[in-house]
Amino acid sequence: MEESVDTATAILASAAVLLREHTFDDISYRALADEVGISERTVYRQYPTRAHLLAALSTWIEQTHFPLPPFVTVADFRAAVHERFRAFDALPAYAFVGARASTISLTLDAEPAYITRAIEAMLDVAASTLNRRDRRRVAASLRYFSSAMFWARLRTGFDLDAAEICDAFDRAVSTVLARLPDAASGDMGLAGEQRGRPAALWARP
């Protein structure tokens, strides 16, 4: 089992190296096998389809290159995501893999991602009056705005840089939090002028 885990990780590390010069679609299983020094059959055994490879590679890249700093408060969350977006800008090929992986759906029973659990924990403290359904809804929105997909959308669709994407993220978060019930949004410490701001602030006028 240990050898299998090491082989799987070696394949992902090699794929990340190849991403520096090739797109994901241009990286063949044969190239991965040659890079690692194993058979192509072994690569298929670890990752039966390219969807499995993409999902695993995205997770590995996020853990090794884009770990989200711990956060407890909304201010911490904003700072952590700003740091993540700057990292995305420094390694765009890796970030685009994460964005693409988020569009696929594998038939897997996966636990909620760490960031979702962390956001829900933040909301438990900062907006304790939220019911479970609303907390999960808000957490899903905040997770999207902190994602590689959101970054990629603004990077490719609007040609924004990291600083501009961070600003769009801040405005989107303010919009989401401003829609919370009065008691909950008050706990967030939102400024009065932030409440009721229009949605879709992440799009350039």
UniProtKB/TrEMBL annotation:
GO terms for molecular function: DNA binding. This is HTH tetR-type domain-containing protein. The keyword GTP-binding does not apply. Keywords: DNA-binding. It comes from Dactylosporangium matsuzakiense. Residues 5-65 form the HTH tetR-type domain. Residues 28-47 bind DNA. The keyword Heme does not apply. SUPFAM superfamilies: Homeodomain-like (SSF46689). It comes from the Bacteria.
